[in-house]
């Protein structure tokens, strides 16, 4: 079993990993930039090592500094969390070349799924349904026109190495495709150093459904149900729930079986999430995240499983020890991401936390690393907390989240809590009647009404 884990991350996810390690009797090493010297994950770790200045490039993305910290502290494993180096195949390889366990998938699978074209080709061969579109990268504009005519407008031009909504442009008609092609390639080149793009049919009212899976090194793969992550603004998730109010039990069982059979044939190891667009009863694979997701707590709440603990067990070589039949889902869970942003303009709001009160009570969980006096640095992601609730039914979960949001106090910076309160009170959300375009329209309507 792993005895000491270096956590190559910061904030709430670093603290989340620490908690799992502590309960397993595993020592932890926190790495941090100079801007995070007073961060909670640094305070609570068994050991801490400063790895560079505030810039992520010089600290949390500094592979040499992270490996040096692991060496000098005697860590025998590294957990990358999410973001930063979590889906960097070269990092995973380097970690294992240095004799350390990488608490995540193999470098091969990270590399395969990190390129969206290769990921789609792989999943097609494994029998997973895809969004209609190009078979691979588009060599030129003429090829894009031909595929678009074949699948029908509107279409979406997407960066092969993309993520987070960058390098994605919609062409509503043939008149738009040249501009979409040019802009998507330019954004992809600037963001990822790779201007390869591909084309997909643009679905006008889909939901974003993702499936949580775990695989061990012994050929066992299970899933832990789906999450509905359709509430997004500019392709950034804001609220997630498990399970989806749109799926039937039969659909849930079908996509779970399809996904686990595919990943079992791949020999997939550790945690992963398959993402689909779902419309009119059809699932279409779009990508796979080879890491722990931000929204993993809703799955933990409905399945009563510690996914980080399972990741560590798998990285230690242990078998899952259970089958799909042993995984039981109960009740409903909702997660609200609490970002330090203006709830109307969405401009980041770094600053010092003057008052902080976390809500409590039955079925309420707050994952956060902030505290009174903590200064939110301007260098990193604006998410400062995740508020998660669990209840027997979706209606009860909504009521519990409304109560928890009302209790939550964060003073000193602006947050998106008021926006969450409006979303939870909206009749369409309460009925579960929304798509990936709903939140953009909701925000626009709120702003127009002022």
Automatic annotation (TrEMBL):
Q: Which organism is it from?
A: Gluconobacter roseus NBRC 3990
Among Gene3D superfamilies, the record links this protein to: ATP-grasp fold, B domain
The segment(s) forming the Biotin carboxylation domain are: 1-444
Q: Where is the ATP-grasp domain?
A: 120-316
Name a biological process GO annotation: malonyl-CoA biosynthetic process
The subunit structure is: Acetyl-CoA carboxylase is a heterohexamer of biotin carboxyl carrier protein, biotin carboxylase and the two subunits of carboxyl transferase in a 2:2 complex.
Q: Which residues form a coiled coil?
A: none
Concerning Pfam families, the annotation shows: Biotin_carb_C, Biotin_carb_N, CPSase_L_D2
Q: What is its EC number?
A: 6.3.4.14
Q: In which pathway does it act?
A: Lipid metabolism; malonyl-CoA biosynthesis; malonyl-CoA from acetyl-CoA: step 1/1
Q: What is this protein called?
A: Biotin carboxylase
Q: Which residues form the signal peptide?
A: none
* UniProt KW Metal-binding keyword: yes
Keyword Transit peptide among UniProt keywords = no
Annotated Gene Ontology MF terms? ATP binding; biotin carboxylase activity; metal ion binding
**Which keywords label this protein?**
ATP-binding, Biotin, Fatty acid biosynthesis, Fatty acid metabolism, Ligase, Lipid biosynthesis, Lipid metabolism, Magnesium, Metal-binding, Nucleotide-binding
Reaction(s) catalysed by this chain's protein: N(6)-biotinyl-L-lysyl-[protein] + hydrogencarbonate + ATP = N(6)-carboxybiotinyl-L-lysyl-[protein] + ADP + phosphate + H(+)
Please give the superkingdom of this protein's source.
Bacteria
Q: Which InterPro entries match?
A: ACC_Biotin_Carboxylase, Acetyl_CoA_COase_biotin_COase, ATP-grasp, BC-like_N, Biotin_carboxylation_dom, Biotin_COase_C, CPAse_ATP-bd, PreATP-grasp_dom_sf
């Amino acid at each position: 079993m792993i005895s000491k884990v270096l956590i190559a991350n910061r904030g709430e996810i670093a603290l989340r990993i620490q908690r799992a390690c502590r309960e397993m009797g595993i020592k932890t090493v926190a790495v941090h930039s100079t801007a995070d010297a007073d961060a909670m994950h640094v305070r609570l770790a068994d050991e801490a090592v400063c790895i560079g200045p505030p810039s992520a490039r010089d600290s949390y993305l500094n592979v040499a500094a992270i490996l040096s910290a692991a060496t000098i502290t005697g860590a025998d494993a590294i957990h990358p969390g999410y973001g930063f180096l979590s889906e960097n195949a070269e990092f995973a390889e380097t970690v294992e070349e240095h004799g350390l366990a990488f608490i995540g998938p193999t470098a091969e699978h990270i590399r395969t799924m990190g390129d969206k074209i290769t990921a789609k080709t792989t999943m097609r061969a494994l029998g997973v349904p895809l969004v209609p579109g190009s078979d691979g990268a588009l060599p030129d504009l003429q090829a894009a026109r031909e595929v678009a005519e074949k699948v029908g407008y509107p279409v979406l031009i997407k960066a092969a190495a993309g993520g987070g909504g960058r390098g994605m442009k919609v062409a509503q008609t043939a008149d738009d495709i040249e501009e979409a092609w040019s802009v998507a390639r330019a954004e992809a080149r600037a963001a990822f150093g790779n201007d390869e793009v591909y084309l997909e049919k643009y679905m006008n009212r889909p939901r974003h459904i993702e499936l949580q899976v775990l695989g061990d090194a012994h050929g066992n793969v299970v899933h832990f149900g789906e999450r509905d992550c359709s509430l997004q603004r500019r392709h950034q998730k804001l609220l997630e729930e498990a399970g989806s109010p749109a799926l039937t039990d039969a659909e849930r069982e079908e996509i779970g079986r399809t996904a686990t059979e595919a990943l079992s044939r791949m020999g997939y190891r550790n945690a992963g999430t398959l993402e689909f667009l779902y419309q009119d009863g059809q699932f279409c694979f779009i990508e796979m995240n080879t890491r722990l997701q931000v929204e993993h707590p809703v799955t933990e709440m409905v399945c009563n499983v510690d996914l980080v603990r399972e990741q560590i067990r798998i990285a230690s070589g242990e078998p899952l020890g259970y089958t799909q039949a042993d995984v039981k889902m109960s009740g409903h869970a909702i997660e609200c991401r609490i970002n330090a942003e203006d709830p109307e303009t969405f401009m980041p709001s770094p600053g010092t936390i003057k008052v902080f009160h976390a809500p409590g009570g039955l079925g309420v969980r707050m994952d956060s690393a902030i505290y009174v006096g903590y200064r939110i640095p301007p260098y990193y992601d604006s998410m400062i907390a995740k508020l998660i609730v669990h209840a027997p039914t979706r209606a009860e979960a909504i009521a519990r989240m409304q109560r928890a949001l009302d209790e939550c106090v964060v003073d000193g910076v602006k947050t998106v809590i008021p926006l969450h309160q409006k979303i939870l009170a909206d009749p369409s959300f309460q009925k579960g009647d929304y798509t990936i375009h709903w939140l953009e329209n909701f925000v626009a309507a709120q702003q127009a009404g002022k």
